[in-house]
Amino acid sequence: MLTIYINGTGCISPQETAAGGPLLARLHEYEQVRLATVDPDYKQWIDVKQIRRMSRVVKMGVGAANLSLQAAGIAQPDAIVTGTAYGCLDDTGVFLTKMVNQQEEMLTPTAFIQSTHNTVGGQIALLLGCNGYNNTFVHRGFSFENALLDTVMMLREGNAQNILVGGLDELTQHSYQILSRFGLYKKEPVKTMELLKSPTRGTIAGEGAAFFTLGTKPGEHTAAELTGISTLYKPMWEGEVIGHIMKFLEDNACTPNDIDLLVTGRNGDIDQDDIYEEVVEALFPEHPEASFKHLCGEYPTAAGFGMWLANGILADQAVPDVAMFYGKAPRSIKKILLYNHHQGTHHSLILLSHVE
Amino acid sequence: MADLKKQIIEQLNLQEVTPESIGNDEPLFKEGLGLDSIDALELIVLLQQHYNIRIANPEQGPEVFYSIRSMAEFIVAQQTAKA
Lengths: 356, 83
Description:
- Chain A: This is Beta-ketoacyl synthase.
- The structure holds two protein chains of two kinds.
- Chain A is an alpha/beta fold.
- Chain A is 33% helix and 20% strand.
- Chain B has helices at residues 2-12, 37-51, 61-64, 68-82.
- Chain B is mainly alpha-helical.
- In chain B, α1 packs across α2 (37-51).
- The A-B interface holds A 48-49, 51-53, 106-110, 113 and B 11-16, 34, 38, 41-42, 45, 48-49.
């Protein structure tokens, strides 16, 4: 089967991931329930006349996309595919607030135009002058995964050689308040490095953008290939998840023993982390495990951060101490399985393999 | 005209632009501030919100929104006509 290479990555997150250098070398430790991105200077990619209309999530997306293309050494991808659950929430809030406050009179166009989910994909294309395929997937906890799946299918069908794909979501005052009412987040602030051992319900809110330049040929600095991706919606019980993982590994010609490192989406919510315990106990009892949501917070496209981290681990052949959850980091890392779920309903598997 | 400049900067979220840096006779569109058609809609709303002035004839647009001075003169003329 056609090999799909990760030729470049870009990530903007609550950690200093846009700055380059060693992977997560400088930990941004928080003691709060809501994490916000560490923003680079976006003017390095966006003209000052254009940046004024862009909300944070658009800038995040454009920034991460540019980082990814720069790392891949590609100026123009054949297609742009994005995944976002919430879209451009900030501008949606601005527009709706104006509608209410101004009784649907004298509404300005900018916030409305910028409030759609595909704004980010569109802005990236406009800035690059890319007239190729452009699609945005809005599927809650599968938004990023479905964008990735679409990209894989396009590459395998031979319709493109290089595709820019990414997942992103922002957290706004409105969304944080609404999601807090659903009981998603912890009532008390918790320290970053203590989150995953937290004995309480709820997690920490996060946001970010992670982009990948995927291609059918490896680049000069390519460290990983995307071996497989799969999703499982609303499993009835943990046995279904375990069976799904077994089948996924089998489909990709490997067994649990071939996995050198497991990367999980543990988020410190005792109710939601149960399933990771069950999976680890059944399939990976002695495997070293890394985690990432204590670093980026929980959001529907957080698997993008996880994949960015896994790619970095394969490139460095080392796991940052701040990401290790269980066991000792392996010396040689050939295969990483990323298992993530969002709110217990959206389960996804991403398998990456090292490229020598 | 200074107030109008401040209102435009705020409405259009112009960055790295101060009221002093906008010339009274400088073209607002294309050259000068480099505004575009979306900004034109924002300026129409600005006139409605701050001065209760509606542009009845769309063909007036290019003339009214040519510069800060042309906008200010239009506002004064409309307010005088109402009074």
